[in-house]
Amino acid sequence: MKREELVDITSTRPGTPGGRFMRQFWLAVHRSEDLAKGHAKPIRIMSEDYTLYRGESGRAQVFAYRCPHRGAPLHLGWVEGDALRCLYHGWKFDCGGQCIEMPAEDANFARKVSAPSFPTREHMGLVFAYFGEGEPPAWPPYPAPPQEGLIHCWNVETVPCNWLQCYENTADEVHVAFVHRPGGSHAKLAADLPVISAEETDWGMLRYGTRPGGQVRHTLHYMPNTTRVIVPPLAGFDGVGGWQEIYFSFTPIDDENHLWLITSHVKVAGAEAERFLAKKAEFLEKVRQAPKVMDVVHDVWAGRRRLVDIDHPELAMVQDIAVQAGQGRIADRTKEHLGRSDAGIILWRKMLARELAAIAEGRPPKKWRVPPPDVVPIVGV
Amino acid sequence: MKREELVDITSTRPGTPGGRFMRQFWLAVHRSEDLAKGHAKPIRIMSEDYTLYRGESGRAQVFAYRCPHRGAPLHLGWVEGDALRCLYHGWKFDCGGQCIEMPAEDANFARKVSAPSFPTREHMGLVFAYFGEGEPPAWPPYPAPPQEGLIHCWNVETVPCNWLQCYENTADEVHVAFVHRPGGSHAKLAADLPVISAEETDWGMLRYGTRPGGQVRHTLHYMPNTTRVIVPPLAGFDGVGGWQEIYFSFTPIDDENHLWLITSHVKVAGAEAERFLAKKAEFLEKVRQAPKVMDVVHDVWAGRRRLVDIDHPELAMVQDIAVQAGQGRIADRTKEHLGRSDAGIILWRKMLARELAAIAEGRPPKKWRVPPPDVVPIVGV
Amino acid sequence: MKREELVDITSTRPGTPGGRFMRQFWLAVHRSEDLAKGHAKPIRIMSEDYTLYRGESGRAQVFAYRCPHRGAPLHLGWVEGDALRCLYHGWKFDCGGQCIEMPAEDANFARKVSAPSFPTREHMGLVFAYFGEGEPPAWPPYPAPPQEGLIHCWNVETVPCNWLQCYENTADEVHVAFVHRPGGSHAKLAADLPVISAEETDWGMLRYGTRPGGQVRHTLHYMPNTTRVIVPPLAGFDGVGGWQEIYFSFTPIDDENHLWLITSHVKVAGAEAERFLAKKAEFLEKVRQAPKVMDVVHDVWAGRRRLVDIDHPELAMVQDIAVQAGQGRIADRTKEHLGRSDAGIILWRKMLARELAAIAEGRPPKKWRVPPPDVVPIVGV
Q1: Which residues on A lie below 8 Å from B335 (Cβ)?
Q2: In the predicted model, what is the mean pLDDT of chain B?
């Protein structure tokens, strides 16, 4: 039996090898623009609930979900400065977690009580938090491209399956020719399919897609859950923005759901940036008017509509989620028949299984480095 | 470990100590005005299903949920006089449970079959039933105020959490200053917070809220699930009706849901009563047009809306349910940090744990008396 | 204890005695007219998922649900001729299950991989499949009436309860006088109730309903899940079509849900057939405009509406599902009080329990014959 069948590489629940592994890294948990000053909201990450709020100074903070007094959800309360006050009885906590006020209690009770607070920072339009023990790893979790440009952060999607399925899909270059061309002439595309190879690096995995003409596409897979790749102009943008660098992150909500967070770096400035933003506004308006992605996916899954008949501004998202979450809430990897085109997935699983086995058996895991800024993805098509 | 951590004080499933305890009392199960003559409906109380119907004479009756023949839900059938006829094959039962007709069977079969029927009575606009063994306790379950007045029964809410959380909240006078003043100046209110104390009585618990000025508010907590308190004029009533006596009852549907039943005694008569009823009609019309309370609560829980931004005719209900059911379907009491303001809750849990331990260990429980009419709540503010 | 209490006669999960029993027969799984050429959809039968598709030649095929490569649902893909191509990486399978193309893999990999495919045929407007081992039994699963006529296949309903409850109801002639006459004078009808008797045959069960006047109605119960009976002109058809022969089939989706598939043979031809089809179009238009059957049933179950107050073009379906699925997802048969009118149900359960016990104990089950065309139902009223 292979090691990846002995260790559960999909679970990130607290205490599991995967849960302990993932808690060693900064993880993207929210889109920055979706968190207004003075607002608090609930988030669920790796099967645990948290409060996420942005203080009046602009500081984002991941905090305990429940008040230590009687368990009220803290996001119901008030943000006061960068502190948080519970709705139920007015207990107030500074952003480090210390209780600093208990209106109806003895004066010395507050200093004895605190709530967990988690290192929180922002990068390329996303809020990251660190849920592990001790000091968080180096910052930022991955480098931005060196060029001038504009950060474009996509709508965050909640996907009803284990995070690893969608992560694996980013190492599966062949799927593009089929999943994203329903009804099209895939026979022709099939002739141009890349040959996939991959190698482990000290920050994750570097994957190559070699085309029949000899061009090689380089894609970066950063540990533990982010893929950096160059993609064509976005559908619905009429070429504006050109080829972009995209960072896909897949953060577990629990073992059967995850957040799909996408930030991209568009090489535009000045008037070109204005044109891009205008296209983006148009696109977002179309999205607002369209059925929700998951509603369309559920229609497709139930057989009420055929995927090949769907027209939708976020069609690629519909296609990806339909097929990847369609593999099951947690895909049964024991029934697969993997081929040479699955080389990237095979290597990633080996690395993950090796690391989780080390954690499970108490051996020291690999020391992952922050990715160097000069290793960048290459289009290669 | 404390006794209330050894006994499960939250469960009322049949056979549990809590289930046996609660089945010793009359319990409110429905609002009288919601049950029309000749109508039958399903109710679920303490994890068991029942049929509730009102005979053509006006008599309310709690009855078995299923026909003993082949298990059809009896509320689907016909109310005939004060009897109930099953839809499936026409078996007819008198309100005491005896089968009195089986159209397609041998003549002597009916008298061999009966279905459970439960003592059922009405008081202050609510239907009460007794689910225990032997004779029910004295009637009524609690006294009405002696003054002339009008009974005003609120819309019944189904709350998605264990009954004890919302019951405990009625012993938590401090929450009012915070939960029901979102966005308001709670700092000022905090200065006026009451000091809480409580004592056990032979019918439940008497709780005192002593204000800095020396006034003392008295609130009555009747065993097992009713609180009697004097409250200010209702929101949206412009002061009409004045301070009312309110009886809150929390009846378990199952361990994770309960009915919040509220009846009140408004000291009005004649023209003043007309004005009150006109205000009530206005208020109910606003409620009908507003989003459902639980829909708003779910928006708040999911972080789609902030509680402090909500405007709703039943705002207090939204606030209460958001925070109390927000503690979890069954709150985890092992993680609490209780203070002096929780004195009422602490005493109630001790009493409950003591009684349930007695039941679990086969010792005789306390004999609770029907509350005397002359112990009444006092405003004290 | 009776044998039917020792063997679970309700479950058809793979590996259970009931699951092994049911997999010996052709089972109706879909309405033919709901499956267009070139379309694929998911179906779930006896707790297992499948792909159902109709090739471009018109051939219907039940196929594996997931691609053997990486588990993508095959119904998301393309029907090409009578073959099926997976959306994820373009693997193509012929209708027998052999993989015949893998665009991104080595040329010799495809012939090593296949997916399960199941014998599939069509009869009287329904798609049947065989899920057992070895060769399927004789075809067709039951005879059509010999007369000229028109096949009328009803809308298929998904019923949220175990299949056996609704099947048993077809052996329960007495229910008609009550379930389908709410608000009517059932006292009068009760006087005419039939006396029920039944006998086992080599293809199932023949059941008799003897009326006080001496007429006898014959109903055929074909193993394992189909009942053939003559019924009055359909509600809403104004007598057009006359008395029809109806075949009810109840195919398990899983143990708590089933498909109710109804096909009927209407003895009309020429102008009379045209009139029938016009009435049918009118009726279907009314159904399209009416609330969904299950929405009405849920209103009734929750007590929001009384069954006796409902007006609906598919009222009989609403009534049947309300009472039969109202018995519970899987009815608790241990609490029943059966009478002489339940003779058909009692015999059927005995037969089923005997067969399932034989399977469980490794004894040879009865060899069921295909029903002879000359044993036909008789109206008898």
Answers
A1: 66, 68, 71
A2: 94
